[in-house]
Specification:
The protein is α/β, with parallel strands linked by helices. It contains 15 helices and 14 strands. Bound molecules: adenosine monophosphate.
Amino acid sequence: MRVVVVNSGSSSIKYKVFALEDLTTLMEGLLERIGPGEARLKHRRLTVSDDYEEIIETRFITNHREGLEFILDVAGRYPTTRDAPREFFGFGHRVVHGGEVFRKPVIIDDEAIRQIEDLIPLAPLHNPPNLVAIRALRELRPDVPNVAVFDTAFHQSMPPKAFHYALPSEFYRMHHVRRYGFHGSSHQYVAKEASRYLGIPEEQLNLITLHLGNGASASALHGGKSIDTSMGLTPLEGLIMGTRCGDLDPAVHFYLSRKTGKSFEAIEDILNKESGLKGICGMNDMREIQRCAEDGDDQAELAIEMFCYRIKKYIGSYYAVLGRVDAIIFTGGIGENSARVRKESCEGLTALGISLDDHRNEEASFGVLEIQSEESRVKMLVIPTDEEREIALQTIHTIRHAAGVKGVPNL
Ligand code: AMP
């Protein structure tokens, strides 16, 4: 059977189809530009010769339901050429905000849909397209269970002292203003991989996980559980990101509004879409920024320095929070690929038992890469993340658990 993972954005749908038995990726794809104009679907299928064939199709697609019908149509016409069963075991949906209601994945029923709807004010850009895909697949394939896997759920283990803001408490009671954290599937996935690689049970591991991509977040994991993370009420808080500012004096918002006459909405847009690396140097792609910095661009150099400095501050504070750190994990497009960012984020931390081996750090690799020096007390690992695989695992676990299957592994 197959497990399909769906990640539905405002104008795009990403999907991955896994074999239930061994989680081989049978097909995957991305439909972009849903809305006015022509949408483009890039579909890849696993062939008998063990490589992936790419198919590109375009079509006018006005909404997500049509988009999913298009994907099912293309996947039906261009299935994997491997001998694989075609029935669906389940659909796993990445849902961005689960608030305090969802501490783990759930099988979607009408009540779950209502609760995800109630959370829209907390994630107005993300939860609605997630819901559209859920509704469409329930209608198109009513025989297949849908599971929601929340970005926030993994961080629900944070204690009150970590998740509360120092604001009047009625804002929390009445409006749910608190820190939630995101990228949960990624932090959870790399923690499990680290545990597997090190041969130490997760319950015994203290980790600092750094998801450094276009969005970026750090987490402190105690015994495999998240006890603090850098993103807050929204994914704007914390590390410097591609276009998001991360931590900021909240007074900047009011000051800018008074000085420029811009509305709060306009400033919110700037903090989310025009700030971070892009705000500092005009570029948000780390590869390009590194190239420009090497060519002597001062702003690009500053952007990298600021990016790494913020990460280092989080490593230091999470070290203090955890007391003992067994490993620091780098993941995400930048964490997996930028030796410079890894090096500068950890520079000068030898007193904490953190030191990198420059040679190992430069090595390109597939799979898990160990980059600490011989003297380092703390292991330092580069682990490629795979959020879709984590969502597939959680979908399988949730459906089996609901069906009362005995001996469901604690994935
Ligand atoms: P993600 O959001 O996880 O896909 O990560 C995207 C970010 O990773 C972008 O800033 C890319 O420039 C960055 N990235 C990808 N490959 C490299 C690389 N080889 N060196 C530096 N940054 C990279």
